[in-house]
Structure formats: C-alpha cells, structure tokens
Specification:
Radius of gyration: 33 Å
CATH class of the largest domain: Alpha Beta
CATH topology of the largest domain: Heat Shock Protein 90
Oligomer: single chain
Shape: elongated
Bound molecules: adenosine-5'-diphosphate, magnesium ion
CATH superfamily of the largest domain: Histidine kinase-like ATPase, C-terminal domain
Strand content: 15-25%
CATH architecture of the largest domain: 2-Layer Sandwich
Largest sheet: 9 strands, mixed
Length: 637
C-alpha cells in the first residue's frame, strides 16, 4: 500500500505532504544504493538498533511519567516476514515519533561533519565503506540498500495521533496522518518492500541467523513472526550481555555487542569487563576499537560511554572517561544512582566521579597488561590511538607517570619500531643524565636534523616527537623515572661528559683561539638577532645549527605557539658553531684579515642555520647578494 491509496479517503486523512530530502541525505542515499556497501545484512542491525534505542528512551521517560507505558510495560521488537509480498517489517513498542520528529529524523542528517564522512566513503574501498556506516548515524537510510520503498508508521508514546512516512529513497518522502487502527499502539513500524535481489530476507533462517549474529545481545528481546498470522518466536531474549558472568561470554558475543554499542564493524582490540564492588557497585564493559573512528580529532567529540542505572539507559554524555580516552566505547551500569537522576545532577555526583576514576584505572591497567603480554597487539592500539592517549600526559597530572610508561616512541634507535621510556632509560649511556628529545612536525625532517649529530656520534638515543600533541606535554612532563626530559634544540647540550663512540671522554674537541675569536666576531656582527653564539658539541657533520636559549620554550613548541597566536615574537635563538668543522676553521682563518668577507660569512652561516631549521633567510635579497659575493671571491672573479 502506498500513500496515494492510503489517502484516498480525504476526510479521514488529509493529503500527504511531500518533502524533498536534504541535499546530504539525497547524496547519501544515492551512494548507499549504487555503490559502496557490499555487506547488505547490516541494514537489519541498524533498524534493530534504532528500535532498541527507542525502547530504551521510553524506559527512561517512563521513570518520570509512568503513564507512558500504559498496560504494556515490557519492551519488545518484532520482526515479521512476508514472502508472498516480499516484505519485511520491524516493529517496536518504544518511544515513537510525532510528525515533526519523523521529518527531522528521517529527512535530515543531524550530525555535523556529514560531508567529510561521505567524501571518505566515496574514496573508500567497498569493504571499508561498509565499516563506515552506522558510525555516523546514517543507519536508517541503509534500509534502501535492500528496499525500493520504505513505509514507516509511528505513534509517539502518550499521544493519540499516528503518522506515516514513506519514500522510495529517490529524492523525496511523504508524511501523512495515519489511521490509528493501522498504527502500532505505541512505537514505530518500519515496512521494507524488498527489492527483487533482496527477497532472501523473507527467509526465516536467514533473518534468524543474521539477528543472532548481529544483535543477539542487545537489552531488548526480539521475536520473529515467520509469516503473517503465525506465532511469534523469541529469537533473542534481551538479557543484557554485561549482566552475564564473564565465563559465559565468548569472544564473538563480545565482538557483536561491541559493534552494536560502537557502531563500528570491526573487532575490538581490547575488551575490559568487570564488576566493581565495595563502596560503589557498578558493572563496566568497555572496548578499545580496532580502528580509528573518523571523528577522533573532532574538537566536539566526547566520550561515548553509556550510563545505565539498573539496566535503564540514562545518557551517553555523562563524561565517564577523561577526554584522552574518548576512543573507548561501552557502558557502565550502576545501582548507586537513583533512576530519576537528572542528566545535570549526574555530572556533580560523587558516584560518577568514583566510577570515572575506577574505570579509567581499569582501562589503563588493561592496556599495561596487554603491552606486556602481547606487544604486537598493543603496538597496533598505540599506532591507532597513541596520539590521543598522550593528551593525558598533560591533562591528567595524577596519571602522568603511568601514561608516560604506556607511551611508545620513535627514536633515533627505534628503526620502524617503537621504544618505551623504560627501554630508553635502560639503555642510557654512562654519564647521560637526561632523556633527550627533538620535537617537530615531520618525522623525516627530524631524523635529518643537525642537532642530532653529536648525539648520534655518542650513541645517545633521542626521542623523535612528531605528533602535534608532543610539543605540549613534553615541556610539562617533568621527568620519567627521575630523569628530566630535555630538548636537543634547547640550551647547552651537556654532551661533553659522554664519550663519542670509539673514543674516550678525554678526546673531546678543543676550540682553537682562531675559532674562539671568530665566535666573538660573529657575536658583534649578529648583535641583536641572536641571544648567543657559541661553540657546539652537538654537531659533528654540519657547520652550524640554531637552538633555543635555556629557559624558554624549545624551538618546535615556540613555532607552534606562534602559529596559534599564543605568543608574539620568538625568543632570539642561539647560533651554535661546530668548531671541528673544516669550513669554520677556514672561514675563521680568512676572516682574520678580511672583515668584509668575515661578515658575509657569518650572516650566510646564520641564514644556513635557519634553512636547516625549516625556516627562511630573514632578507632573501641580502642573502642572495652575499652568496654571489662569496662565490665570486671563491672563483677569483
Ligand atoms: P542514529 O540511530 O545514529 O541516530 P539513524 O539513521 O539510525 O541514526 O536514525 C535516525 C533517527 O531516527 C534516530 O536518531 C531516531 O531519532 C529516529 N528513529 C529511527 N528509528 C526509530 C524508531 N524505531 N523509533 C524511534 N525513533 C527512530
Ligand atoms: Mg541508528
């Protein structure tokens, strides 16, 4: 039955209103139908998950308004198959939708970032595309993968009006009042008119298999009616998975539940399921996803841990985990909060902060254990979420040491692998007192930095920090295991006490008097543009480099802060000169007699140091002229 026939009796139901889909919906529908998704079974999971959400919302509303439940308090989802008509119906007795909600929920896409999401889907391989649906609240529209028409009839709990929504998914939909006699007493009925190639979804075996595999552990029971008029058979009992003992739950059941709660289609990388007893009692089931949610770095993104009170869903916005664990999905169920707790009260509740603390500790401990027992698996988690976890080093003072201990780094000694700070400390050189790092925005550039030369020559490992968050935590981290963290591009390098590989500490270079006086000369030439010029022991191959003066931010952080408009001018750098470098010796020698040349050389060296640092000469024209003068002189022109 379509809208036109349904609305033939104009006096009972006025003509349907036709609406055009929002542009993003139209585009999404087109994509859904024509390209990406190879695994069509997922539409069932999406519709069942909407039905279950609707039942949970009603359960929550009914705490304040018990009358909403009438004499039908038990939540349920019913799937009815009709092979003859090629129809599949999913009905729930949940909260339902009124006219405005139908138009809003099934005609628009509420969440921001839809466009970015669709661009990613369009670029993705088929299998990855499938993984992406549902992450983004496009769940309902997946019905059009298998149906060429979808009719929805809904009656909102507590109202005495019902409305129908109907569409072929091709650009518009119609909404009309529906006959109460044809509508569910409460809740929503979604009728899929299956495409020819999707008729197998009227087979009892197929549907039962899919439902059990995809939705077997959601907290609302599901019944199947094999054909119109047949008896309903329960195929999932609605026992919430998290209330069962761990020993009774298999890996696949956890994975299925994870997919429902996270909206992702992969397997969890880590599952943490526990019951806390004592002062506060609660059960928590948390998952670290196997892949990165697309909005992980969206500044608005919050944690998505759901809060239940005695199995009643309350909110997914309770802040059950700190921001740096925002990739963790799952739920906490407690009996220690009153059912009628308002969402605002939750935030202030001491019960919540106790659960937050307990849960955070359990998740971090589980990660630590995994790092020990299965380094390979931990490595993939680190590669997916490490940059987010590191935010905790500066956001969570209490757990700083623990988070530093969990962190893994690229270093001058790591190759393609990762090193922990414990590894680093264990391999420190004799005479080495600090943990050295170099921060920047590009790993390959970092590896090529002149600042590393003296450290390499001495076999001293340096952490290479190329994530954006690194510059923030590293200056605040203080120390690890009693060893301060020190930037190799800041302050004096203190390398004199560590022997170069193959030499002993006494064979350190000495700065000749000629170079000494050249350094003095360079100071006068550069004047205010530097805070110091000095001989370096961090250089072996390069002639010069820039470092930040002691005390201020290191050079990478300074650039970042400047970029963000947080500080105005940069601190004046220190120009370090390699006293062992042949070029420096020669320039110093020649500059003794020829001040004009000496001055050109000093300024060129300073510009060169800027370029090595990823910057530009201050005055490109003067730079070019000086370079030409020096060339001419060298060529005897
Ligand atoms: P999501 O579930 O991520 O919000 P969907 O596309 O699956 O996205 O559903 C969009 C919206 O439609 C839901 O948020 C809900 O408001 C509404 N909706 C869908 N199905 C139902 C249902 N069976 N009962 C009540 N509301 C529903
Ligand atoms: Mg949904």
């Amino acid at each position: 039955m379509n809208d036109e026939t349904k609305t033939a009796d104009v006096s009972a139901s006025p003509a349907p209103e036709h609406h055009v889909f929002e542009a993003d919906v139209a585009r999404l529908l087109h994509m859904m139908v024509h390209s990406v998704y190879s695994d069509k079974d997922v539409f069932l999971r999406e519709l069942i998950s909407n039905a279950a959400d609707a039942c949970e919302k009603l359960r929550y509303e009914a705490i304040g308004t018990p009358g909403l439940l009438g004499d039908d308090a038990a939540a349920r989802i019913t799937i009815t198959l009709d092979e003859a008509e090629a129809r599949l119906t999913i009905e729930d007795n949940g909260i339902g939708m009124d006219r405005a909600e139908l138009a809003e929920a099934l005609g628009t896409i509420a969440r921001s970032g839809t466009r970015a999401f669709m661009e990613r889907i369009e670029a993705a391989e088929k299998s990855e595309g499938t993984q992406l649906i549902g992450q983004f609240g496009v769940g309902f529209y997946s019905a059009f993968m298998v149906a060429d028409r979808v009719d929805v009839v809904s009656r909102k709990a507590g109202t005495d009006a019902a409305f129908s929504w109907s569409s072929d998914g091709k650009g518009s939909y119609a909404i009309a009042p529906a006959d109460l006699a044809d509508a569910p007493v409460r809740g929503t009925r979604v009728v899929l008119h299956l495409k020819d190639e999707a008729k197998s979804y009227t087979s009892k075996w197929t549907v039962e298999r899919i439902v059990k595999a995809q939705s077997g552990h959601i907290p609302v029971p599901i019944a199947l009616i094999e054909k119109p008029g047949a008896e309903a058979n329960e195929i999932a009992d609605g026992t919430a998975l998290w209330t069962k003992p761990k020993s009774e739950i298999g890996e696949e059941a956890y994975a299925e539940f994870y997919r429902n709660v996270s909206g992702q289609y992969d397997d969890p990388a880590l599952t943490v399921h526990f019951r806390a007893e004592g002062r506060h009692e609660y059960t928590a089931l948390a998952f670290v996803p196997g892949s990165q949610p697309f909005d992980l770095f969206d500044p608005d993104r919050k944690g998505r841990m759901k809060l239940y009170v005695r199995r009643v869903f309350i909110t997914d916005d309770a802040g059950l985990l700190p921001r740096y664990l925002r990739f963790v999905r799952g739920l906490v169920d407690t009996a220690d909060l009153p059912l009628n707790v308002s969402r605002e009260m939750i935030q202030e509740s001491p019960v919540l902060s106790a659960m937050r603390k307990g849960l955070t500790s359990r998740v971090l401990t589980a990660l630590e254990k995994l790092a020990e027992s299965d380094a390979e698996k931990f490595r993939t988690i680190w590669e997916t979420f490490g940059a987010v976890l590191k935010e905790g080093i500066y956001e969570d003072f209490e757990r700083r040491q623990q988070l530093l201990g969990l962190s893994r780094f690229r270093t001058t000694a790591s190759g393609d692998g990762w090193r922990s700070l414990a590894d680093y400390v264990k391999d420190m050189k004799e005479g080495q007192t600090a943990i050295y790092y170099l921060a920047g925005d590009d790993l390959n550039r970092l590896k090529a930095s002149p600042q590393l030369e003296g450290f390499r020559a001495r076999g001293v490992e340096v952490l290479l920090l190329a994530d954006q968050v690194d510059s923030f935590w590293v200056t605040m981290a203080g120390d690890f295991d009693g060893k301060p963290l020190k930037s190799v591009s800041q302050g004096a390098a203190d390398l004199a006490g560590i022997a170069k590989t193959g030499e002993d500490a006494s064979s350190q270079s000495v700065t000749t008097p000629t170079v000494e006086s050249f350094i003095g000369f360079a100071k006068t030439v550069l004047g205010d543009s530097v805070s110091d010029v000095r001989a370096s022991d961090r250089l072996t191959e390069s002639a010069v480099c820039l470092v930040a003066p002691e005390g201020g931010p290191d050079r990478a952080l300074e650039k970042l802060l400047q970029g963000a408009g947080r500080i105005d001018g940069a601190a004046k750098p220190v120009l370090e000169i390699n006293p062992d470098h042949a070029l420096i010796g020669a320039i110093a020698e020649k500059g003794k007699a020829d001040t004009a040349f000496g001055e050109d050389a000093v300024r060129l060296l300073f510009d060169q140091a800027h370029i090595l640092d990823g910057g530009k000469p201050d005055d490109p024209r003067a730079f070019a002229e000086r370079l030409s003068r020096v060339f001419e002189r060298a060529l005897g022109a």
